[in-house]
Amino acid sequence: MSNYKKRLKKEAQSFDNIAAERLASGKLPDIRRNFFNPYFYNNIWRNSNFVREHFSTSIDWIVMNLQKHKIESAIEFGCGDGVLCLEIARAGLNVIGVDISPESIRIAREYLKSLPERKHLNIQYICQSALEYKGRIGSMVCHGFLHHLPPKALKDFIKKVSQNMRTGQVLVVVEPRYDKVGFKNALLIYALRLALPNHFKYKGAKANIIKDLEDIIKEVSEADKCQSEMNNESSSELILKTISSYFNYIEVSYTNAFYDKVIGGIRVNKKDEDKLATLLKKLDDIIVKYSNDMGRNIRILAQK
């Protein structure tokens, strides 16, 4: 077994463990379900309103671009437990979700079976690695997947996709910019955490502010790569450069300055939580609109 396949096996196991833990803790793989789950003490999955506010911008952007280009079928690589696949199918498209985690695919399939609307949704889930996928690849969606591919695998995958994609089909990508997180991001997150009732216990004026900011930078950039074996293998710059090498048309935009790192830790009453969820997301969107360097996610639309 090659070193890459050994690492891929560990990657799959990591996401199996994550998926099983989240399922056991009551996570629902659906942004349309209402819930409050205190298990996720500093995470958007604490509150379904947080989830909708966080994902709506990117999901709407993905669906809009698929529809604008008259795409009827798409494949999502790194689909996880199927959250995005559901929304693409609900928009009327046929979708195939592919992931290396057997547990994630099992959860996605079981949740789909539980939905009364399932007969109106055309979704197929496949457990397989991206480079080993043998099916037809047309228009494609990647949401937080490509940064898990090592540089050579990233190049091989994008090349394979571009060679199989017909004129008019699209590649729609949302990936984190862990390599671009800096002092301004950390300072904004720190200020909001200090200003609002929060589960964090910063000491304000008596704190070691530099250390606090350094800790936030490590947290937001996921410097410890604790999620999985192959987290942060390829930077956002490398992803953009690689896609640009194989596609004729590229559009780039940015999103997500701070929202997901602040909202889950808020500790106010339910009514104010809902108001803050909307207010902070609007603020996040406006900040990134005028300061692209604050965007912690890159969005790439590529077309042959």
Helix/strand layout:
Blueprint: H1 3-24, H2 48-68, E1 73-77, H3 83-90, E2 94-99, H4 102-114, E3 123-127, E4 139-143, H5 151-164, E5 170-176, H6 183-195, H7 209-221, H8 236-246, E6 249-255, H9 259-262, H10 270-290, E7 297-303
Helix pairs in contact: 1-4, 2-10, 5-8, 6-7
Mean pLDDT: 93
Radius of gyration: 19 Å
Terminal-residue CA separation: 35 Å
The main β sheet shows up as:
7 strands, mixed
Strand order of the largest sheet: 3-2-1-4-5-7-6
Helix content: 40-55%
- The dominant shape is globular
- Note poorly predicted spans: none
Number of helices: 10
User: Which series of helices and strands comes N to C?
Assistant: HHEHEHEEHEHHHEHHE
Structural class: alpha/beta
Q: Beta-strand percentage? A: 5-15%
Number of E strands: 7
Question: How would you describe this structure to a colleague?
Answer:
This protein is α/β, with parallel strands linked by helices. It has 10 helices and 7 strands. It has a 7-stranded mixed sheet, sandwiched between helices. Helix 4 links the parallel strand 2 (94-99) and strand 3 (123-127). Helix 2 (48-68) packs parallel to helix 10 (270-290) and helix 6 packs across helix 7. The model has no long low-confidence stretch (mean pLDDT 93).
Summarize the model shown.
This protein is α/β, with parallel strands linked by helices. It has helices spanning 3-24, 48-68, 83-90, 102-114, 151-164, 183-195, 209-221, 236-246, 259-262, 270-290, and strands at 73-77, 94-99, 123-127, 139-143, 170-176, 249-255, 297-303.
